[in-house]
Each structure stands twice: as C-alpha cells, then as structure tokens.
Design a protein that fits this description.
The chain is built from four helices and no strands. By secondary structure, the protein is mainly α. The protein has two domains: 38 residues; 79 residues, no CATH class. Helix 2 crosses helix 3 and helix 2 packs across helix 4.
Length: 119
C-alpha cells in the first residue's frame, strides 16, 4: 500500500493542530486554577455564634452574604451579563463558605434561601 504525500502531511498537520489545542487547554486550565487560588477572600468569624440554632445560622449566613458582596465585583446592574456574573460570583462564594463551615443548620438555610429566590 502506498501512502500519498498529501495524506501524510495532512495527518501531520492534524497531529500538530491537536497537540497545539491540548497545550492551549492545559495552559488555560492552569490559569483558571491559579486565579481560583488567588481569588480575594475575607475571613468571617463565627466563634461567637451557636450554629445549632436558627438565629446563629441566620446571623452567620448574613455575615457570609455580606463578605461575598465585598469580594465579588460591583456593577450598576444595567448590563445583564455583568449582573449575572456578579450574582454567580456571590452565589458561588456563599456556597463554598457554607460548605467549609459544615453546619447542617446553615446548609438548610442556604437551601431555603435558594428556593425562596426561585419564586
């Protein structure tokens, strides 16, 4: 079987193109991971709260929500895509903070707040 020169060069081009694509994706993934590690953060203290109570969980939820509003960018809200980005940033920050705390009462409060926002 003879291999045509055009076929070999086409395959070589495809392999090089695929390699370049993989390298690009890996570099982009590394940048995103680095950006996530360097994301702004605020320490929210809650050692003064009893997270077994709804009042304690509610107070911590408000502190976390306020911190999320401070670390996520601010926009005027007239540009829908910017508003959606900020809302997703805040929602993600709150969710990660609630997960880190590990309180069932706080997690239930987060879930009920999300359900209420869907109404």
């Amino acid at each position: 079987m003879k291999v045509k020169t055009g076929d070999a060069s086409t395959r070589l081009f495809a392999v090089l193109l695929l390699t370049a694509l993989v390298v690009t994706v890996l570099c982009a993934t590394a940048r995103v991971a680095k950006a996530a590690d360097q994301a702004p953060s605020i320490v929210v203290k809650f050692d003064d709260l009893n997270l077994q109570t709804q009042a304690g969980a509610m107070t911590l939820y408000h502190r976390i929500s306020t911190a999320a509003s401070e670390v996520c960018p601010h926009v005027d809200g007239r540009v829908l895509s910017e508003y959606a980005f900020v809302k997703a940033c805040r929602r993600g920050a709150i969710s990660r903070a609630v997960d880190q705390v590990g309180s069932a009462e706080l997690a239930a409060l987060l879930k009920s707040a999300r359900v209420a926002s869907l109404r």
